[in-house]
Amino acid sequence: MMISTDVNPELKPMVDVSMKTRIVIIVEYDGTRYHGFQLQGKLPTVQRELERAIEKLTGESTRVMTASRTDAGVHARAQVVSFKTGSSHSTDTFIKGMNYYLPKDIAVKAACKVRDSLNVRRHAVSREYEYRILNSKARSPLRQHSYLVPGHLNVDAMNRASQLLVGEHNDLGLAGGAGGIDHKGDITIIIIYLGSA
């Protein structure tokens, strides 16, 4: 897919693929206005914004890879993303430069150069998901990333039911073959903690 850019394609540097460096960035974003992380046609996505910022900063068109994709409207605190570049920019320049080109609801928090064999999806050691419920008659501007449930919740029944989920579970079925990864022989451990109000 072509991404519109301010860079004239004829001026893009021709870089020998073998000379490219793999960069890992840690990204934080408010996903409210995005249709998830992964490219979705012409719809706004986090991946599109990251690739656009990299291209504006380096003049190179590249694809990013993430450890875990998010759905529409989902937010991330420490999303791990990698890409290859022929640019000699320092990691500090990637942080500052990408943040200059990114919209205000996406930020690069850290960056580092890594060995080329690192695959952020396959080498991820954990993923953490958090779901929040706001049990209130009215919405809260300070808790806008919570699911509003205005009616009565039977917290005692919810706590009893959730006890069935708490602990470690070998449940590859929940992984669903995410990202086309071959899970043959993998053991997926799902650890569930009971939160508090």
What layout of secondary structure does this protein have?
Blueprint: E1 21-29, H1 46-58, E2 65-66, E3 76-85, H2 91-101, E4 106-114, E5 133-135, E6 147-149, H3 155-162, E7 167-170, E8 189-192
Parallel strand pairs: 5-6
Antiparallel strand pairs: 1-3, 1-4, 2-3, 7-8
Question: Describe it for me?
Answer:
The chain has 3 helices and 8 strands, in the order βαββαβββαββ. The chain folds into 2 domains: 9-114, Alpha-Beta Plaits; 133-192, no CATH class. The model is unreliable at 1-16 and 176-189 (pLDDT under 50). It has helices at 46-58, 91-101, 155-162, and strands spanning 21-29, 65-66, 76-85, 106-114, 133-135, 147-149, 167-170, 189-192. A 4-stranded antiparallel beta sheet has the order 2-3-1-4, with helices on one face. The chain has 197 residues and is α+β, with helices and mostly antiparallel strands. The termini are far apart. The longest helix has 13 residues, at 46-58. Helix 1 (46-58) crosses helix 2 (91-101). The protein is 16% helix and 22% strand.
